[in-house]
Amino acid sequence: MTVPSPLLFLDVDGPLIPFGAADGRAYPTYPPTPPSSVSPLLARLDPAHGPRLAALPYELVWATTWEEDANAWVAPRLGLPVLPVLPWPPGDGPALAAGLHWKTPELVAWAAGRPFAWVDDEIGAADRAWVAAHHPGPALLHRVDPGRGLTEADYERLAGWAE
Q: Is the overall model pTM greater than 0.85, yes or no?
């Protein structure tokens, strides 16, 4: 029996599009030019993330408010295929415990016991505790500095955990 790869839930804003790179770097905007409804921060997306993410031993899943726009505007700039998109509950969703990120229950439900890593800039202690109590499989909740985005150390941590 083949064991499936762990899932890697990816947020876009913060991990892939840093909010304030210390060196002021910007990356070229790749055609086609996105409509004005798409974040102007898309220019900060480093295309080198694509090969790095694809090389990790995970099944990649978008876990972002970009939803399908991640496949339309982010994936092509990274050289990634169309990825599954984690759907969010309509409206405000269910009431959550204090400090719990609204994505957390949805990630655990989607994983359905399967090992997963979650890369986001908004992960906190309440999320870690909730996953530990509600997810029977292994899980890595990896918080990324939103000012820097994914770094070499983050990729090393993700690769090491998957082993």
A: yes
